[in-house]
């Protein structure tokens, strides 16, 4: 298949929609853990919103990965092969983390013993409380979320370098 010079419309929509939702989800996760357990249900409400949004992101990722496998691969930027491999590797790592972060969150929630609700609808998941697994998965969720944020920062820095220093019209490829 020939390599198109830019991303197709669906890929562009998914990229920007998920970028916005992921950053909001990250901030929400970080903020909500500081809400007091005061018996008003506020903490549970925000936790449920975070879980629901996380499941939406997981579904969007499934669509994105499926589509990425079906569509022709976009032409690499004209740069040294080593840098092309580095960019590809970084994009693969972003996909891997976009999968790992919500999976750890979901499994951790299953082992917390609380029911997982999707915008109010209780999901038919086995609600087995297992404290050791919950603790381990919470740590995995925490550290993979930080790794995702670090890699996204590098991604945006690489974008800015190509766009503003090398003056390649990178944004047109993802617009
Ligand atoms: C302001 C924030 C962002 C900017 C300016 C940006 C910009 C871009 C651009 C221009 C490309 C195309 C690269 C190319 O032409 O080869 C791209 C690709 C990509 N971006 Fe972003 N991005 C942003 C945020 C994010 C976030 C939050 C994620 C999620 C983790 C993300 C994940 C990806 C992935 C996985 C690709 C590769 C797509 C593929 O080839 O399958 N980006 N980004
Ligand atoms: C890509 C999507 C997601 C991102 C970026 C994200 C991000 C975060 C962040 C940054 C925290 C704070 C971590 C800490 O301070 O330890 C957090 C906490 C949490 N997240 Fe997520 N999350 C995502 C998806 C999910 C999903 C799908 C679930 C469950 C269905 C979930 C459940 C939780 C829970 C229960 C906490 C509280 C801390 C814990 O018990 O582990 N998250 N999340």
TrEMBL record:
Its main location: membrane. Signal peptide: none annotated. Its cofactor is heme b. SUPFAM superfamilies: Transmembrane di-heme cytochromes (SSF81342). It is found in: Cell membrane. One of its GO terms (molecular function) is metal ion binding. GO terms for biological process: respiratory electron transport chain. Residues 6-174 form the Cytochrome b561 bacterial/Ni-hydrogenase domain. It is a multi-pass membrane protein. One of its GO terms (cellular component) is plasma membrane. Keywords: Cell membrane, Electron transport, Heme, Iron, Membrane, Metal-binding, Transmembrane, Transmembrane helix, Transport. Pfam families: Ni_hydr_CYTB. Gene3D superfamilies: Transmembrane di-heme cytochromes, Chain C (1.20.950.20). The keyword Transmembrane applies. The chain crosses the membrane at residues 12-32, 52-70, 93-114, 143-166. InterPro entries: Cyt_b561_bac/Ni-Hgenase, Cytochrome_b561_oxidase, Di-haem_cyt_TM. It comes from the Bacteria. The keyword Electron transport applies. Belongs to the cytochrome b561 family. This is Cytochrome b561. It comes from Oryzisolibacter propanilivorax.
């Amino acid at each position: 298949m020939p390599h198109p010079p830019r991303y197709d419309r669906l890929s562009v929509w998914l990229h920007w929609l998920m970028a916005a939702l992921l950053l909001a989800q990250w901030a929400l996760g970080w903020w909500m853990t500081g809400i007091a357990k005061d018996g008003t249900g506020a903490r549970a409400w925000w936790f449920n919103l975070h879980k629901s949004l996380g499941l939406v992101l997981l579904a969007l990722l499934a669509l994105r990965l499926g589509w990425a496998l079906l569509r022709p691969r976009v032409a690499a930027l004209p740069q040294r092969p080593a840098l092309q491999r580095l960019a590809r590797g970084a994009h693969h790592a972003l996909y891997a983390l976009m999968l790992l972060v919500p999976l750890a969150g979901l499994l951790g929630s299953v082992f917390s013993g609380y029911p997982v609700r999707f915008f109010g609808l209780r999901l038919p998941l086995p609600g087995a409380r297992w404290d050791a697994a919950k603790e381990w998965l919470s740590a995995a969720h925490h550290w993979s979320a930080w790794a995702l944020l670090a890699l996204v920062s590098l991604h945006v820095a690489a974008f800015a370098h190509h766009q503003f220093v090398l003056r390649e019209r990178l944004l047109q490829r993802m617009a």
